[in-house]
Write a structure and sequence with these properties.
Chain A is mainly α. Chain A contains 11 helices and no strands. In chain B, helix 3 packs across helix 4 and helix 4 crosses helix 5. The longest helix of chain B has 16 residues. The chains are: A mainly alpha, B alpha/beta.
């Protein structure tokens, strides 16, 4: 049909307000879902929870066969191990996609267009963060919560259901906090550049360089547990011990508030960088 | 009333991008003209409520910056440069922009189809924008500006980079939009586009308002311009005309004579007769927008800008 064969008519349908952040978040996820790499990475990261699910089923089988669990059901060790692996799954998801969440808008100048619509800076920031949270949710959080529910369900009729449920509740809350922190770091890095490649390199650097530093400090200090505070997986390990096992599970040298403080600092830095970017949008061309 | 600006000022540090614009404008199609750095984009962004400014401004009767969101809900903006994610399809792009304007998802999707049909991208609506030609990209940008049914459309260089046929189609489309009760502000360097589309112009230079009013008034100068050709005596006639206080410019094999307000065409013809010069070509020339624009710029540059 040629131009104007179909006439333009003014829109007189319903309008809604205050939902732009949800639109930005959901559209971001839908746009990422178009890529094969997104589907591939999400499939790959679901393999880890699948293996853990088999382990949990094995644990249940042994428990029912032997009349008791061969492992301590409230031991933070396996949960900590799982969360550390999921940190790398999360890193992979963000390398494949999330690092471009803001930088692509800067590069393609879509920010200029978005702000000519009736949206606020907060809408934009929230929407973009929500995109990463959606990726986090479908990539690692959903299987993590499902595994927690599965393991709790296996102890449904046992005496220590309450203890197991509490452990997994704490682990679930901690997982949300950890993954939200990682999303905040990624959105912060993406806010600092219009080159997605730089954001990806920075993200890899943020993960790997502190791990090397942790190894060096650990060797130099004869394996001091404080070295764990220097890297993200180390902090996850310490935070899991503190959240699930309490003061007793944590080495004496490490203050119980330290892992949470490190995570909170990283979370604030990430969101701070996003805030800085969004506050400097005036006159963007 | 389309715009009502009162001493609108915008500074970037010590640089004054807009120097106290005061105007009232109510027109169906307005051309926003000015050389690079005149403040056109700054004015558009200010009128969209994107930039803080001093003074006061009303767009469609809504005050800025207090009602910036309401203004943006009523205004469609087509930016000059590319502003899309190349891996988005046209339908997603337009639908997404509709949702940002407040349309519910289903309505935005249906509406995106309608406007993409309207701008002639119906065949390409499921293709990624990265594979579009320049003309198709411009149309997609126009579609996103129209999707929410705006009352006012800001078009920033809509024919930039288009071939003659594409440019003609785009202008045809804009003319059609104009007839559908949507006011248009066209910011462009291409003066023929303004002449074709607009009925009034706003002209800026170095952040100051040089002219604001109907296009006809701008093109009807106080002085008449006549194109004259003589039989082998152009240079002689030019000298006589200049001696008689006519302003004359030689262009190719013709003379362009500006008739001052205290002279008439009869004076010119009488002079030719008196000097025994045979006139072969005598054509009153319409003052083009380009000529008027350049003359106004010259005048503005010659006199210091008024203080805000």
């Amino acid at each position: 049909m040629a131009i104007r064969d179909q006439s333009y008519t003014a829109y007189d349908g319903p309008m809604r307000e205050n939902a732009a952040w949800a639109v930005i978040g959901w559209t971001g996820l839908r746009t990422y879902w178009r890529f094969w790499r997104t589907k591939l990475v999400l499939f790959a990261v679901w393999l880890v929870p699948f293996v853990y699910a088999l382990v949990i089923i094995g644990e249940y089988a042994l428990t029912t066969q032997l009349g008791g669990s061969p492992i301590d059901q409230t031991d933070p060790g396996p949960i900590s191990g799982y969360l550390r692996v999921q940190v790398f799954s999360m890193a992979l998801i963000f390398i494949a996609n999330g690092c471009g969440v803001i930088s692509e808008d800067l590069r393609h100048r879509t920010i200029q267009l978005y702000f000519s619509k009736p949206i606020s800076r907060l809408d934009y920031a929230l929407g973009k963060y929500l995109t990463l949270l959606w990726l986090t949710f479908f990539g690692v959080l959903l299987p993590t919560l499902m595994l927690g529910a599965l393991r709790t369900a296996f102890y449904f009729q046992s005496d220590n259901l309450g203890e197991v449920a509490l452990v997994h509740l704490k682990a679930g809350g901690l997982a949300v906090f950890i993954f939200a922190t990682m999303a905040a770091i990624v959105i912060g890095l993406s806010s600092l550049t219009r080159r997605t490649g730089y954001a990806v390199l920075a993200w890899i650097g943020v993960l790997l360089v502190p791990m090397i530093l942790q190894a060096i400090v650990a060797v130099a200090s004869d394996g001091s547990p404080l070295a764990g505070l220097l890297s993200f997986p180390g902090v996850v390990d310490l935070a899991t011990q503190a959240a699930i096992g309490g003061r007793d599970a944590l080495a004496e040298e490490v203050p119980i508030w330290a892992p949470a403080a490190v995570l909170l600092t990283l979370f604030s830095l990430g969101l701070g960088a996003l805030g800085w970017r969004v506050s400097r949008l005036e006159g963007i061309t | 009333m389309l715009f009502e600006l009162n001493n609108l000022r915008k500074s970037y540090g010590p640089f004054q991008a807009l120097k106290g614009l005061t105007l009232k404008l109510d027109s169906q199609a307005t051309g926003l003209l000015g050389p690079n750095g005149a403040g056109k984009s700054t004015l558009l962004k200010s009128l969209l409520g994107l930039l803080p400014f001093e003074g006061s401004a009303q767009v469609l009767g809504m005050s800025l910056p207090e009602q910036a969101l309401e203004v943006r809900r009523s205004v469609g903006y087509m930016p000059e440069n590319d502003c899309y994610l190349p891996y988005m399809t046209a339908i997603d792009y337009v639908s997404f922009n509709g949702q940002l304007c407040g349309l519910p998802a289903k309505h935005a999707f249906r509406r995106a189809h309608e406007v993409l049909f309207y701008v002639g991208l119906e065949e390409a609506r499921y293709r990624q924008l990265g594979g579009f030609s320049t003309g198709m990209k411009q149309r997609a940008k126009l579609a996103q500006a129209l999707v929410h049914g705006p009352k006012l459309l800001f078009l920033d260089e809509p024919t930039n980079g288009l071939d003659p046929a594409g440019r003609d189609e785009m202008l045809e489309l804009i003319e059609d939009v104009k007839t559908r009760d949507i006011a248009i502000v066209l910011s462009t360097h291409l003066l023929p586009d303004v002449e074709r589309i607009c009925d009034s112009v706003m002209m800026l230079n170095e952040g100051s308002l040089v002219h604001c009013g109907p296009l006809d008034a701008l093109q009807t100068g106080e002085e008449e311009l006549i194109e004259v050709q003589t039989h082998l005596k152009d240079q002689v006639f030019k000298e006589h005309l200049e001696a008689a206080n006519f302003e004359v410019v030689s262009e190719a094999d013709r003379l362009k004579v500006r008739v001052p307000s205290n002279k008439s065409l009869d004076d010119l013809l009488r002079l030719a007769r008196d000097k025994d010069i045979e006139i072969r070509h005598f054509m009153p020339e319409r003052l083009t927008l380009e000529t008027a624009f350049l003359r106004l710029l010259d005048e503005a540059n010659a006199s210091p800008a008024p203080e805000a």
